[in-house]
Design brief:
Strand content: 5-15%
Number of helices: 9
Number of domains: 2
CATH topology of the largest domain: Rossmann fold
CATH class of the largest domain: Alpha Beta
Radius of gyration: 18 Å
Structural class: alpha/beta
Order of helices and strands: HHHEEHHEHHEHEEHE
Length: 236
């Protein structure tokens, strides 16, 4: 029975591909959610980067924004700029219920993890407020974390870090200071499962880093040793 299950699962995937063909979210070419051509044209974030926020920084030292930033998070890393086909992919995952793209995006994150030092012994998705979960039906960051766990072997710990208050979507905030205020006090810890661990926060996009940093502050108050942010894309 155990040896048959993977074969059955694969047959199910093949059947779904026949009934619902996959199209590139960038160019609509059939075959994959992101075709090789669109992926190759996707802008990358390449070193040197600011060691804290992860944005390109020619000197490889703290950028001018991070020198002034009293950050709780230990660092943020992202493989892609938030534009092009990755921006389309995040939009489809987040707002168009294309959950099936999560394994491919997690695979891109895993490839990045193998060549980029992001330290941690547990994956924690950035939580959504329960009202947002009801509206959307899922947390896109949790989907990415679950798929990344399958590849990396790291455990996913959910529902320890929670978002207990609703906030305005960060994209609607005009500037960094507004984004920081928008997420101040909205996260909390509900148990001790993360105490003494080193955490990798998983999210789809980092804009200012305010959400990741707010989570990091709460986690460290609860006894988490270190917190790194890992997102698929970063606004530059």
């Amino acid at each position: 029975m155990v040896t048959v299950l993977p074969q059955v699962s694969r047959l199910g995937e093949i059947a779904l591909d026949i009934l619902f063909p996959r199209y590139c979210v960038g160019c609509r070419k059939e075959g994959s959610f992101i075709c090789d051509s669109c992926l190759l044209s996707q802008p990358l974030i390449v070193p040197p980067v600011c060691p804290l926020c992860g944005r390109p920084q020619a000197s490889g030292i703290l950028c001018s924004d991070c020198i002034r930033w009293k950050a709780e998070i230990d660092g943020i890393r992202s493989p892609f700029r938030f534009e092009g086909v990755i921006q389309q992919a995040v939009y489809q995952l987040k707002y168009r219920n294309l959950r099936a793209i999560a394994p491919m995006l997690a695979g891109l994150l895993y490839d990045f993890m193998k060549i980029t030092p992001v330290r941690g012994d547990a994956l924690v998705p950035v939580p959504l407020h329960k009202s947002r979960i009801r509206e959307r039906g899922y947390n896109q960051s949790a989907l990415l974390a679950k798929e990344l766990a399958k590849l990396s072997g790291l455990p996913v710990i959910q529902n320890s870090l929670v978002k207990h208050e609703k906030s305005m979507p960060q994209a609607r905030s005009a500037n960094v200071e507004e984004r920081k205020k928008n997420v101040s006090g909205v996260f909390s810890i509900r148990d001790e499962r993360l105490t003494g661990r080193s955490v990798i926060l998983i999210d789809d996009v980092s804009t200012s880093g305010a959400t990741l940093d707010a989570c990091a502050g709460v986690l460290k108050e609860a006894g988490v040793l270190s917190v790194w942010g890992l997102t698929l894309a970063r606004e530059i």
